[in-house]
Amino acid sequence: MSVQFPRIFRQTSPMRSFVSSFTCLLALFGVAAAAHGQGAWTLTTADFQSQRVDLDSITAAEILVAPGTRQRSSPPEHIPFTRLLVLQRSERLAPVAAAPFIVNLNGGDSAAGQPLGVDAEKLSWMTPSLGKISLPLKNVGAIVRAGAAARSAPTTRQTDDAVELLNGDSLRGIIATLDATTITIQQPGGEKTPVPLESVLRITFASTAPPAGASGASAARPRGFRVSMTDGSAITCSRVQLARGADQPLQIVVASDPANTRSIPLAGVAAIEQVNGPVIWLSSIEPAESISNPMFDLPWPARMDRAVDGSPIRFGDRVFAHGIGVHSYSRLMFNIDTDFKSFRTQYAVAGDWSYANVNVRIKLDGKLVHEKTGFRSGQLAPPVQIDVSGHKQLILEVDYGQNYDVQDRFNWIEPAFLR
Question: Any bridge partners for residue 320, and if so which?
Answer without folding.
Answer: 313
